[in-house]
Amino acid sequence: MHIVIPGAWPEPEVAGELAGHVAQRAPVLAAWMAHSTTAITQSPAADTWCMPHEHWLLKACNFNPAEAEHISAGLGPLRGAPADKEPVWLAELVHMAPSRDGAALLPARVLDITPEQSHALWETARDYLQESGLELEALTTDTWRVRWPQAVTLPCASPALVATSAVNDWWPQEAVARPWRQLANTLQMAWYEHPANQARAALGQAPVNSLWLYGGAGQSQLGRTPPNDIQTDFSLYDLAISQQWGEWIEALARLDQQLFTQLTTQPASLILSGRNRYVELSAHTGWFARWRTQDWRRWWCSR
């Protein structure tokens, strides 16, 4: 079993201060970390163009990026699961809003988009496709496949990464992306007062007013399928990004009681990710494993 906890490894600036709280409020986790081997991977966004927990998953699938690709390109075939050999470009339904840095993005994970809303927005989007030359195919409620009329090479960041920074930092500016930019801008206007968004507004929900393009790799670049025993928990993720460390500690304590107890009953690896790195922990095995310990604070507080 692989337990993945995005946002569970704070940045060095606060990790040391939080270490004592982790030991006190999450004793199961602390004990397990003390009896585990660690493998730390640096995952800077400037290199990967995705979040560290996405990087870990692509690495677990032995993704092999092409020379001009970032590792984020592998999210296309990973999530699109295509039956063909074509490059897999995906579009995630998102919310964009003005911010101090230009624009901010809310990913589909926090929007609670219903199948009915997704279908209604897709029906409207379909009316504008001929002019762009692009094709859209609905794969899931929040993810559509994008087909280009010709092969394109285009660096695109994952929606999860863009949501932690500014849209302007990752908005594709290349000439080849012009049809996509035009379509995205057209849909922002077409969806502005869309009935689906009016219904969302009545419920106090943010409108779904844009698409974010990412992916671009092919299925053959994944060396193997994802492990079928992955358990991912995002309860710390948003708290870590917004640096709400008091609430983060409380959420970690709940995980210690509800999730981390599984670590003591069955073989597992634990993946804790931060903003630009992740650590994979595996329990020591063998008859003397209980006596092999490490000071987990050393890697926890490392830079």
Kindly describe this structure.
With 303 residues, this protein is of the alpha+beta class. It starts with a strand and ends with a helix. The protein has 14 helices and ten strands. A hairpin with a 2-residue loop joins β3 and β4 (102-106). α1 crosses α2. The mean pLDDT is 91. The chain has helices at residues 12-25, 27-34, 45-48, 52-60, 75-80, 115-126, 129-132, 159-162, 167-170, 178-190, 195-202, 237-241, 245-258, 296-300; strands spanning 2-6, 36-42, 89-99, 102-106, 135-138, 143-147, 210-215, 230-232, 269-273, 277-283. The strands form two sheets. The chain has a five-stranded mixed sheet. Strands 3, 4, 5, 6 and 7 form a five-stranded antiparallel sheet that branches. The radius of gyration is 21 Å and the shape is globular.
